[in-house]
Design a protein that fits this description.
Function: Bifunctional aspartate kinase and homoserine dehydrogenase that catalyzes the first and the third steps toward the synthesis of lysine, methionine and threonine from aspartate.
Radius of gyration: 37 Å
Cofactor: a metal cation
CATH superfamily of the largest domain: Acetylglutamate kinase-like
GO molecular function: aspartate kinase activity; ATP binding; homoserine dehydrogenase activity; metal ion binding; NADP binding
CATH class of the largest domain: Alpha Beta
Bound molecules: 1,4-dihydronicotinamide adenine dinucleotide, the ligand N[C@@H](CC=O)C(=O)O
Strand content: 15-25%
Shape: elongated
Protein name: Bifunctional aspartate kinase/homoserine dehydrogenase I
Largest sheet: 8 strands, mixed
CATH architecture of the largest domain: 3-Layer(aba) Sandwich
Number of helices: 28
InterPro entries: AceGlu_kinase-like_sf, ACT-like_dom_sf, ACT_Aspartokinase, ACT_dom, AK-HD, Asp/Glu/Uridylate_kinase, Asp/hSer_DH_NAD-bd, Asp_kinase
């Protein structure tokens, strides 16, 4: 014998009921079973509301009751052919007549006791189960209607009656023994030994099913609902939550206590006592295996779920007068009990200086008053401080029976929370080691759940939440590149990259679920676009509070770079091609790196030098492995190399510079390249990465920007003015060519000093053959002494740069894994 229970959502309308019938048809070949039904979805609430309305003299209950009656007729007429309807119609009519009378009575005497409410509520299940009993006959089942009031005996604690199991078990066994056929049972309702109608409290229909399962020693109990079992976390907060295949009874109780509302602990008890397996199944996805709950789980998995409880406040009771005083806890908890406050979590350190208690927010004022009253004299004479309240808290809990004697679970929990900058206010773990709970701020709840979920269940799967400032040439190329790789990274590398914030210098926009990158709008065209404000952008990023957030700066802006410390303080990683932070003040450069290290987040800037070429990483590896850089000789500007190599082909200089800009090789302002500033910044960064304390003053830079072109209204005017210097540049080139040389704009760093400028090189020099946007870097080090280490390749352009930025973002996925 198997017991199946279908909840209100499964029988909310004819379409859903047909799904239930098809599930029952499939059961026919699988042995004997009985079925428990809840009231049709929402009916109980409507009945109770009508009663409350009648109780306060609000006659609108009459229309609501009429509508409810109609709904029942509609359902029965759609399920039962006309020739079989009459007895069912009569049954329903009589029940609604009774209800009318009851409500009228309430309306007249303005009295509605718990007993009356139970009686009113009982109509929901009586109606649904009766209609479904008859409808199932039409489907070919030999059904028997079971009004559970006949067999479940309880005391008369209306609203939450206690079951008299010995009597109930006998009555159920007798009933089943004497009545062949498929029993269709009303959930939720029972009766007292005086024949009064009672109800079984929250999730009462589940309880009914468990009572029958226990009384009949059922082989299993199936709870059919509208979700596919118990999930690893709340799917509304954790998008990657998934169904837990198997749970022990204890784990299921812990999880449901902390928010997995699929099953209510008390309802499991009768089945649990008999070791009856419970399946949680989805009526709308019957093929889904759902969750099996039983006494044992052979999977050996340590953590099964991460659940939470919102709306919590912390009470801190502290003072020197608490230390080594016997009876303090008894008085605290006695006072709370007397005030009817439910204690959710308790934590006391061994110093005994303070006791921390978590309670529901709506009970905190009462709790504070009760404790302060209890310790009035201690507070007065300073032995104890007034009770401190920390509001707006939430509890997150990792649950799993196999934590027992398995070191590392709590370590993982607090590492994940710490890495994501989530402050833990209190901790509790019982010696049963079934649950580790941490109190965090309500604002951090979603982030905490996601961080823990990832740490425990998705160690192979990572979601990176990107906030991109600078949707210009590189930024747009980056979005395109992520869009084209997004699915493959998810599928093959378990890496999900989502962009939640985009901005240019004028507008910013955010998307909670991540922008659709294949059709990503420009910031100004996105829904909810607003004027750009850097502080507000960062504040929004902080308030979205995702775990694994990444701030990508694709601007050339000093203002953006100036806010990196704030970003890192918020434990958000930074990826950037922007050189401003690393080529600015030396102390700031060092402090940013230190801060990133301290906060445990990455600050990656491979594209600061030579775009996507692996220059910074290589240099960092050399330094980490103990090498020493003696000399760096390099062509570090893709645009300058393009300009001087293309110029050889005979085009006017100003025209080649314009082409370099059009090809996306130059800085937003090409004078940054021509002036040598860009190369100056790069050689400075390389020097600093080589552990040399370089300042910008240590670099001698030869600018190629003619004096009258330095100050112009805009870039266009600069190009116009540059034209006037074409002849002078052609002469420079001709002189070099005459000497059999080529012009290369390069940087040399040696002995703590750097030089940046134009050189005429003969064919013996490695830079002689460079073409287009090529960069080339020669590292002469203690290890690479006789022959330098050489890195060469395109060092500018949208695609190679965006690819480098993208690679840094992907690297974050691996780093934090
Ligand atoms: N073009 C290339 O080959 C390479 C470029 N880079 C670096 O990449 C960065 C971006 O370069 P491009 O995309 O070419 O520049 P761009 O001028 O095309 O785009 C810059 C974007 O940043 C935005 N922006 C500027 N200031 C801002 C602020 N304060 N707040 C918000 N947004 C702001 C602009 O509106 C624009 O959307 C620069 O730092 C550049 O040095 C690095 C390596 C190679
Ligand atoms: N303008 C730069 C691009 C990247 O830093 C260059 O020309 O190399």
């Amino acid at each position: 014998m198997k017991i199946l229970k279908f909840g209100g959502s499964s029988v909310a309308n004819t379409t859903n009921i047909r799904k239930v019938f098809s599930i029952l048809q499939d059961q026919k070949s699988q042995g004997e079973f009985a079925v428990v039904f809840s009231a049709f979805g929402g009916v109980t609430e409507i009945l109770l509301t009508c009663a409350q309305k009648a109780n306060v003299g609000d006659r609108s209950y009459v229309t609501e009751l009429k509508a409810l009656e109609e709904r029942h007729y509609e359902i029965l007429k759609s399920l039962i052919p006309i020739q079989h309807q009459s007895s069912v119609l009569t049954y329903v009519k009589v029940r609604f007549n009774e209800l009318e009378d009851v409500f009228h009575g309430i309306y007249l005497i303005k009295e509605c006791s718990a007993r009356t409410l139970d009686y009113v509520a009982s109509f929901g299940e009586r109606l649904s189960a009766f209609i479904l009993t008859e409808a199932l006959k039409v489907e070919g089942f030999d059904t028997v209607f079971v009004d559970a009031r006949e067999v479940i005996r309880t005391n008369n604690r209306f609203g939450n009656a206690k079951v008299d199991f010995p009597t109930t078990n006998d009555l159920i066994a007798d009933f089943f023994h004497n009545r062949p056929g498929l029993k269709v049972i009303t959930g939720f309702i029972a009766s007292s030994d005086k024949g009064e109608t009672t109800t079984l409290g929250r999730s009462g229909s589940d309880y009914t099913a468990a009572i029958f399962a226990s009384a009949l020693n059922a082989t299993s109990l199936e709870i059919w609902t509208d979700v596919s079992g118990v999930m690893t976390s709340d799917p509304r907060l954790v998008y990657t939550a998934f169904t837990i295949p198997q749970l022990t009874y204890n784990e299921a109780m812990e999880l449901s206590h902390f928010g997995a509302k699929v099953i209510f602990p008390a309802t499991m008890q009768p089945a649990m006592k008999k070791g009856i397996p419970i399946f949680i199944k989805n009526t709308f996805e019957p093929e889904n295996a759902g969750t099996l709950i039983n006494g044992d789980d052979p999977s050996g998995q340590i953590i099964k779920g991460v659940s939470s409880m919102s709306g919590i406040a912390l009470l801190n009771i502290q003072g020197a007068g608490l230390i080594e005083v016997v009876g303090v806890s008894r008085r605290v908890f006695g006072a709370l009990a007397d005030a009817g406050v439910n204690v959710i979590l308790i934590s006391q350190a061994s110093s005994e200086h303070s006791i921390c208690v978590a309670v529901r927010s709506n009970e905190v004022a009462r709790a504070k008053e009760a404790i302060e009253q209890e310790f009035l004299s201690e507070i007065k004479n300073g032995e104890m401080d007034p009770v401190l309240i920390t509001p707006d808290m939430a509890v997150v809990a990792a649950v799993g029976e196999n934590m027992k004697h398995n070191p590392g679970s709590s370590g993982r929990m607090f590492q994940a929370l710490g890495q994501n900058n989530i402050n833990v206010y209190a901790i509790a773990q019982g010696s049963s080691e079934l649950n580790i709970s941490a109190v965090v701020s309500q604002a951090d709840l979603q982030k905490a759940l996601n961080a823990l979920h990832e740490a425990y269940f998705l160690s192979d799967n990572k979601v990176l939440h990107v906030f991109l400032v600078g949707v210009g040439l590189i930024g747009k190329a980056l979005i395109k590149m992520i869009a084209s790789q997004q699915e493959k990274l998810q599928r093959e590398n378990d890496l999900d990259i989502q962009i939640h914030g985009i901005a240019n210098s004028r507008f910013m926009a955010f998307h909670e679920d991540g922008f659709d990158l294949k059709n990503c709008p420009e910031p100004q065209d996105a829904a909810g676009a607003m004027p750009m404000n850097l502080e507000a952008f960062i504040a929004q990023m902080e308030s979205m509070n995702f775990s694994n957030s990444v701030f990508v700066d694709c601007t050339a802006s000093q203002d953006v770079a100036d806010l990196y410390d704030r970003v890192l303080e918020a434990k958000v990683a930074i990826v950037t091609p922007n050189k401003k932070a690393n080529s600015g003040d030396l102390a700031k450069y060092k402090s940013l790196k230190k801060l990133a290290y301290k906060r445990g987040v990455k600050f990656l800037y491979e594209t600061n030098v030579a775009a996507g070429l692996p220059v910074i990483n290589t240099l960092q590896d050399l330094m980490l492995s103990g090498d020493k850089v003696l000399r760096i000789e390099a062509v570090l500007s893709g645009s300058m190399n393009f300009i001087f190599s293309e110029f050889e082909k005979g085009m006017p200089f100003s025209e080649v510079v314009r082409q370099a800009k059009e090809k996306g090789y130059t800085e937003p302002d090409p004078r940054d390249d021509l002036s040598g500033m860009d190369v100056g910044r790069k050689i400075l960064i390389l020097g600093r990465e080589a552990e040399q304390d370089l300042h910008f003053d240590d670099i001698v830079i030869q600018s190629m920007v003619p004096d009258d072109c330095v100050e112009t209204k805009d870039v266009e005017e600069f190009f116009t003015k540059l034209k006037a210097h074409d002849t002078a540049f052609t002469k420079l080139l001709a002189d070099a060519q005459e000497a059999g040389k080529k012009l290369r704009f390069m940087a040399i760093l040696e002995n703590g000093k750097a030089k940046v400028g134009l050189n005429a090189l003969d064919s013996s020099h490695p830079f002689y053959t460079l073409k287009g946007s090529d960069n080339m870097i020669l590292f002469t080090t203690e290890r690479y002494h006789d022959f330098p280490m050489i890195i060469r390749g395109p060092g500018a352009g949208a695609d190679v740069t965006a690819a480098g930025v993208f690679a840094d973002v992907i690297r974050l996925g691996n780093f934090t894994r």
